[in-house]
Amino acid sequence: MTKRPNEMTIGEAAHALRARSLTVRELWDTCAEAARTRNPELNAYLELFDADEAVIDAAQIRIDTEKEAAPLLCGIPLAIKDNILIEGHIASAASKMLENYRATYDATVIRKLKERGALFVGRTNMDEFAMGSSTEHSAFGPTKNPHDTSRVPGGSSGGSAAAVAAHLCIAALGTDTGGSIRQPAALTGLAGLKPTYGAVSRSGAIALGSSLDQIGPLTKTIEDAHILYEAIRGLDPLDSTTIPDDLYPARSISAKLRIGVPRHLLAENITPDVRAAFDAALAALEKEGHTIVDVELPTSVHALAAYYVIQPAEASANLARYDGVRYGLAKRGETLLDDYLDSRTEGFGSETRRRILLGTFVLSSGYIDAYYRKADAARAVLRREYEKAFEKCDVVAFPTTLSPAFKFGEKGDPVSMYLEDIFTVTANLTGAPAISVPMGTVEREGRRLPVGIHFTAPHQAEHILFAIGNAVESARNA
C-alpha cells in the first residue's frame, strides 16, 4: 500500500522531494490537514501554525537548485514541544503561568532547523513544565494515545509523541529530564533519543532540571532519529554546558555488539508480557550474532529515589523566577506576599506545586545534607558503576517501561506515577546517552499496544545507540 505523504519517514520524504514525486507544499498540506482533522480528538498540539508561504517556497527552491546537496530536513514538517522557544510564537510549557508568553528569540535547536529549511507544524502539549509521565498534567488538557484514546501517550513529551505516532507531522522534538522522550516513545511505538548531556544546546529550552534536561528527537525510525540528532547537536556559545566532540574517549565497535543486561534489576514490577517481549527482543538480537552479558549496577536500585530529590531541587530553583513580578502570570493582592502566593498558586498546577515544595524542602537548612547531597553522591557512584559495566559491554539494556500505556487516572498516586521512570532516570543522572526502540506489542483489552526496549551507551557514543537500534529493527523485520 502506498504511503500518504504525512505517513512517510524523514528519509522517505526527503527522497520523494528530490525525485519530484512530491512537493514541499503537498507534504505540508497533508501534515497540516491530518493535524487539523485529528487534533481535536488527540490534543497533541496546543497550537497549529499557519503555513508560511515564503518558507515553503524557499524550501522548494532550495531542493530544486541544490538537489542532493540540500539538507535532508529541508521542507520536512516537524512538531516542537511547547517548552522550546520559536521566535514570535507562544511557549507556555503547558502552564497557565506562561500562557501568554511569546518567545522573543529562537532556541538554538530551532535556529539550526531553520537553517536546514525545516518547517514547523505547531507546538505540542506536555506535562506542565515537563513534570510528569503521562501528559495528564498539562494546564490545557491531556493528550491521548493514538493507539488507544482511553490511554495516556506517556510524558512529559506526550504531545510530540502522539503527533508523530498519529502522522500529524513527520518527526518531532521533545525534552528529556528523566525519560520524557524515551517513555512516550515506548508507549506510542516510536524511536526516542536522549543525547549525551551537553551534546545538544539547551539555550531557548524552558528549564526544569538544569543538570538533567536534554533536547532530543522522537521519530518513526532509527535513521530519522540519527538525521534529526545530527542536525541539532554541537557546541553553542549560548550554552556553557555544551561539549566538544572529543570530550570523552572515542568508542569503536564491531558489527556484533555486546549487550549488558542487569538481570538483578528486572525481578520486580515489570508485567509478565513486557518481560516476555524484552526476553524475545534479546533472543532475536542474540540470534543475529550479538552477545548478551550479565552486568551489575547495584546503586541503580536507589536511582529513582536520588532522581526525585535532585530533580525537584533543581525545579524549585529554576521555577523561583516565576513570581508574579518579573514575568509570567501576575495576580495582585493586598500585600507583596499575596502577589507571590496568588500568582504561583493560580499559575502552577498541583504536580508542579508538589515538586516545588519537595525541592525547597530538600534544599532547606538542616535537610540539604540528609537528602540533596546524599542523592548527588549516589549519582557519582552510579556513574562509576556504569563506567565499569561498559568495560564488558557496549550498551546496557532494560525494558523502557514496566508496562504498556496505562489508562487515564490509573496512576493517581504520585509514587506510582514516579515509578514509570524507574529504568530511564539513570541516563539523566549519569549524563549518558540513551534510546528507546520499539520491541513489539502486548495486548490489553483486545488492543495491541506498543512497548519499547531501552539502551544506554557510554558518553558521546550515540553511534552505538543507532547501531543497536538498527539491529533491533533488522531483527524484528527478519
- What CATH calls the topology of the domain at 5-232 is Amidase signature (AS) enzymes
Q: Treating each run of at least 4 consecutive H or I residues as one helix, how many helices?
A: 15
Strand content is 5-15%
Rounded radius of gyration (Å): 21 Å
CATH architecture of the domain at 5-232: Alpha-Beta Complex
Binned, the helix content reads: 25-40%
Can you give me a brief rundown of this structure?
The chain is of the alpha/beta class and 478 residues long.
Q: Your description of this structure?
A:
With 478 residues, this protein is α/β, with parallel strands linked by helices. It has a domain at 5-232: Amidase signature (AS) enzymes, CATH 3.90.1300.10. The protein is built from 15 helices and 11 strands. It has helices at 10-18, 24-42, 53-66, 108-115, 158-165, 182-188, 222-232, 272-287, 303-318, 336-347, 350-363, 372-389, 414-418, 425-430, 462-477, and strands at residues 45-48, 77-81, 119-124, 171-176, 191-194, 214-219, 258-261, 291-294, 395-399, 434-444, 447-456. An 11-stranded mixed β-sheet has the order 1-3-2-4-6-5-10-11-9-7-8, with helices on both faces. Strand 10 and strand 11 form a beta hairpin. Helix 7 packs antiparallel against helix 15 and helix 9 (303-318) crosses helix 12. The longest helix has 19 residues, at 24-42. The chain is globular. The two termini are 20 Å apart.
